[in-house]
Automatic annotation (TrEMBL):
Location(s) in or outside the cell: Cytoplasm
Taxonomic lineage: Bacteria, Bacillati, Bacillota, Bacilli, Lactobacillales
Described function: Could be a nuclease involved in processing of the 5'-end of pre-16S rRNA.
Keyword Hydrolase in annotation: yes
Source taxon at top rank: Bacteria
PANTHER family named in the record: POLYNUCLEOTIDYL TRANSFERASE, RIBONUCLEASE H-LIKE SUPERFAMILY PROTEIN (PTHR33317)
Entries under Gene3D superfamilies matching the protein: YqgF/RNase H-like domain
Family listed: Belongs to the YqgF HJR family.
GO-annotated cellular components: cytosol
Major location category of this protein: cytoplasm
Name recorded for this polypeptide: Putative pre-16S rRNA nuclease
Pfam families for the chain: RuvX
UniProt keyword annotations, A-Z: Cytoplasm, Hydrolase, Nuclease, Ribosome biogenesis
Enzyme Commission (EC) number: 3.1.-.-
Length: 139
């Protein structure tokens, strides 16, 4: 059982995958997308789903701090519905409040990476944190 975690933005999707037993999450890549032009990176996602033998998706929900849902939550749910229809795999959602902040802090404090390089990996690390939080909650 491998679960794929996704951090969905308007320009990129951070991707993480669990180990085969579902204990740990590993960030694997960032897929460029373009919401405005309905380009969602499904071809690349399909390659990763097949490569890692994914059986389920977890999509991060960027709720507001007061637990309300804004436009980005709707966009994440749209993406979740899109991949469910495309891959015929179950999709679950994980509250992702502060995961990007946590990822940024980790990169600044532990990796000492420049701002330009952080931008290139932050979504992948956020996807990893979303998936790890989900795995910890479920197992």
């Amino acid at each position: 059982m491998r679960v794929m975690g996704l951090d969905v933005g308007s320009k990129t999707v951070g991707v993480a995958v669990s180990d085969p037993l579902g204990f740990t999450a590993q960030g694997i890549e960032i897929i460029p997308i373009d919401e405005d032009n309905a380009e969602y990176g499904l071809e690349r996602l399909a390659t990763l789903v097949a490569e890692y033998q994914v059986t389920k998706f977890v999509v991060g929900l960027p709720k507001n701090m007061n637990n309300t849902e804004g436009p980005r939550v709707e966009a994440s749910k749209f993406y979740g519905n899109l991949i469910h229809e495309h891959f015929q795999l179950p999709v679950d959602y994980q509250d992702e409040r502060l995961t990007t902040v946590q990822a940024e802090r980790m990169l600044v404090e532990q990796a000492d990476i420049s701002r330009g390089k952080r931008k290139k990996v932050i979504d992948k690390l956020a996807a990893q944190l979303i998936l790890q939080n989900y795995l910890d909650r479920m197992f």
